[in-house]
What does this fold into?
Amino acid sequence: MQAQGRLQMTSSGPPAALSVTGLGKSFPGVRALDGIGFEVPRGAVVGLVGENGAGKSTLIKILSGVYAEYEGVVTFEGQPIRFDSPHDAQKAGIATIFQELTLVPGLTITENVFLGREPTQGWLGVVDKAGMHRRTAEVIARLGVRIDPDEMAGDLSIASQQLVEICKAMVLDSRVVIMDEPTSSLTQYEVEQLFGIIRALRAEGRSVIYVSHKLEEIFAICDHVVVLRDGRFVNGYPIGEATTGRIVSDMVGRELSEIYPPHNATVGEVLMRVEGLTRRGEFTEVSLEVRAGEVLALAGLIGAGRTELAKAVIGSTEPEAGTIEVGGATLRFRDPGEAMAQGIVYLSEDRKGEGLLLDHSIGENIVLSILKRLARLGMLLPGVQKQIIDRGMSELRVKAPNARVAVSALSGGNQQKVVLARLLATEARVFILDEPTRGVDIGAKAEIYKIIAGLTEAGRGVMLISSELPEVLGLADRVALFRDGRLVRTLPRRDADAVGIMNVLTGAAA
It folds into this structure.
């Protein structure tokens, strides 16, 4: 129920484990939070939703001790608290799983899980490595995943790194667990495993703040919903009173029409053809083609070889066999720059590690790939540069005061928009998009889908890698199904459905 701009649970319900009142936070030129107030009952899962830039990340960083200076009051188990560091929050009983991964690549999974809180034994204070390993193995087993506690974090996939972040939170005896987009890189099986853990936490009387852009997850696991927009509390209600339309309307401040645009493009010539491409241990004898005016979606479980294939196509890695044909010519790219010169660009699933210069401005990132085109006699043309930057920020609706803001200051979703704006500026013919809506809110997803539709209508070809089946089915003209590094089947859109696809991906059907 809503009262005076604040979500309050009824007096007959469980007492609040955590509450915030009048929470405010400002940055230069930005009012990130403005008078936020809501409660998290003990033993409840509260879904926190809102568009990118709504203030969710700022709120999480206050609750987890990253930001110590703010307005308002945070109350934890009946006592006003103010943390000076994330360590203080963890010690008090609040654990946070951040959307952006924080693992140290050169340490093992066990060492990452206990980093900064290594247990000791004996009067000499020797680190209890055996105990650390045992506890990590217990948590991994509880999550039901197959990763080795002694494996180096830097050797893990993005999905496995996400699971390690969850393990870090699980080893703490936390009474409130904050999960920021925890399923962004997980398979459906791993999501169900995580939901089992969340239900167990709830049964133990622990509370969870669950942040997700995937509304189906909010309905599946949450007891209550809190909606933020433009740094303000908009609404809050029990999940039984929520509908998708109500949540979306509260999030974006308007009714959202059909999220997937119609398929109006005319499929034309082959823009890129891959024949028998092989890279040992990653993918084997893959043959496919991308045509003008179409979206070819690559569907598969984590580890199926889709991202590895994309990286080999653009020259980030070297295939051992097979050919790549562009415009009738057989090519082999030595690096992504050569692929871009031939009109092929790639959006990485890892925007922070591979997609952005975080300490540079929005504008610098948008024009990064086309600097030569913007220069005359070694000098950049500021007028043309500004025009491209302004168009990119406008088309992708990047939320920032101006283009001079550092990309590191943006929310994850707005960072993704900046990467997409840079790719669009290249005017490439083939766009390989690897999880393009990862960590992006539903309003921004609709905008990105329109951009993809616009590319195909303009005669471009799109190779889409997505772990979200609704996205695959909503956007694809053809669906290429990958399992264990092999392309096992390609379906036209009319023959593709979620059950059939999952049967192939899991091996239940040939």
